[in-house]
Amino acid sequence: MSFILYLLILLLLVLSHHVDSGSIVKFLPGFDGPLPFELETGYIGVGDEDQLQMFYYFIKSENNPQEDPLLLWLTGGPTCSSLFALLFENGPLALKFEVYNGSIPSLISTTYSWTKMANIIFLDQPVGAGFSYSRTPLVDIISDTGEVKILYEFLQKWLSKHPQFFSNPFYVTGDSYSGKIVPPLVQEISKGNYICCKPLINLQGYILGNPITDIEFERNYNIPHAHGMALISDELYESMKRICKGNYFGNTECLRLTEVYQKCTNKLNPYHILLPVCDQTSPNCFLYNYFLLSKWANDERVREALHVHNGSIGEWRRCNYDVIPYNTDIQSTVPYHMNNSINGLRSLIFSGDHDTVVPFISTQAWIRSLNYSIIDDWRPWMINNQIAGYTRTYANKMTFATVKASLLGGGHTAEYKPNETFVMFQRWISGHPL
Fold first, then answer.
1. How confident is the model at residue 16 (pLDDT cuts 50, 70, 90)?
2. Residue 355 bears catalytic tag
3. Backbone angles phi, psi at 88, to 5 degrees
4. Are 330 and 361 in contact (CB under 8 A)?
5. Is pLDDT at 186 greater than 60 in this prediction?
6. How far, in Å, are 19, 32, 57, 306 from residue 24 at the CA level?
7. Among 17, 134, 320, 346, which residue's Cβ finds the most Cβ atoms within 10 Å?
8. By C-alpha distance, which of 410, 403, 37, 365 is closest to 224?
9. 176 is catalytic
10. Which 8-state DSSP code applies to residue 179?
């Protein structure tokens, strides 16, 4: 009898561990009725004794989850929550734009979710971002290279708990600062696939939007981008080219001209120069939904519905810039792009054309530096007989695309043009030309 009791206790422990690693969410506060898709949330412990508890949202494909691609989505920052991508960029839900009245903000279904043809793991990373947390005080400063190791461990453990997805085509995806993390993570996965005794991850490629690749390199491209967008005069631009010689921000001879440039541009919204700088707590601001997101994510009913561990974090923040020390120890990810190309992996790199944080011309420049021949030269890509942007395809299976400005225009993340980026993704992931 005691042996049977022991087995029952052991079974309960196994089941409780399984539940803790992932729980199905059928209802969310603010959404009317049951969710029209399958959402799982949970934690995967990584590091020594699973010290780091990495929180994820997993949404199954609404098409054919057994065969459709599996995506790992990493939001940038660093230290921004993936909940932002889920509700603002490419997920099946969005916040309804309405004036906050003290009740929980409303959620509505979207028509542009990438989950219509892919399974997606939205991951809060690094630890301290979103609902991810550490059980004990961090000893080591979080870094680019350290984060790559952590993410690879997360992926191995997540797949071991979801072995039915090992055979699905796998892509690493993200935007902004994840441009520093995705290429080396892809390389890490490629290396891991050559090591004995681990199930192979069916790695096929990666997708990056407005990716930070080399911060100093991209910063210098702000000047020609500003000139091309008519933000500075021809005379100032010609003087800066002549005197600064391409090093616009580390050159004392260029300081006076740089100050003139900054006077012309420092009142602009750097993430989207067509949009005003405004108070996010004001309903008149385009970014008022950021305020609503904070109210929604910090509601105790939401945390309970998402199965967030009680007391694991304090205030949820969209980006936790001020709390987490972070070491940017990868200067440039161009060598990683090169290695991934050599390994035959597909890639889609896209840029909102009115972003000054990562100007599209800087992205084009590092792509050119790879020295791959052009397969399909610069041309417009169309939606409903209208130009949605421009694209070019290279021999290394890399596709570059811009998302064109229109009424709202293409900015730093997919939130500005979610319908266009959805069509772009749909065509690319299906192997069709944009």
1. very low
2. yes
3. -125, -25
4. no
5. yes
6. 9, 17, 10, 9
7. 320
8. 365
9. yes
10. G
Domains within the chain, CATH numbers bracketed: 23-216+277-429 (3.40.50.1820)
Separation between Cα atoms, residue 390 and residue 14, nearest integer Å? 52
197 half-sphere exposure, CB direction, 13 A CA radius? 0
- 50 an active-site residue? no
**86 vs 145: CA distance, rounded Å:** 25
Residue 245 is predicted with a pLDDT of: 87
Which tens digit of pLDDT belongs to each residue from 110-122? 999 999 999 999 9
C-alpha 423/C-alpha 391 separation (Å) is 14
Distance separating alpha carbons of residues 305 and 303, to the nearest angstrom: 5
Catalytic residue (choose from 176, 178, 347, 351): 176
Of 272, 307, 354, 412, which one is the catalytic site residue? 412
Lowest mean pLDDT among 93-107, 168-182, 277-291: 277-291
Closest alpha carbon to 171 in 113, 130, 117 = 117
For residues 70 and 168, the answer to whether their CB atoms sit within 8 Å is yes
Contact 208, 349 (CB under 8 A): yes
The structure tokens listed for 245 are: 């010689």
Catalytic hit among 21, 351, 355, 362: 355
Whether residue 6 has pLDDT greater than 80: no
HEC string of 256-306 equals HHHHHHHHHHCCCCCCCCCCCCCCCCCCCCCCHHHHHHHHHHCCHHHHHHC
Nearest CA to 144 out of 197, 182, 111 is that of 182
DSSP-derived letter for residue 64 is -
Tokens 């896209």 map to which residue?
350
Find the DSSP H helices in 122-181. 144-161
Could you tell me which residues come within 8 angstroms of residue 132 by beta carbon, excluding any fewer than 6 positions away?
43, 52, 53, 54, 55, 124, 125, 126
Q: Centre a 10 Å sphere on the Cβ of residue 251 and count the other Cβ atoms it contains.
A: 15
Q: Within 13 Å, how many C-alpha atoms sit on residue 18's CB side?
A: 9
Residue 236's nearest CA partner among 260, 266, 270, 219 is: 260
Tokens found for residue 255: 């300081």
The torsion angles phi and psi of 392, rounded to 5 degrees, stand at -150, 140
What is the reported pTM? 0.91
Pull the structure tokens for residue 338.
């090169």
pLDDT digits (tens, 9 = 90+) for 300-333: 999 999 999 999 999 999 998 876 788 999 999 9
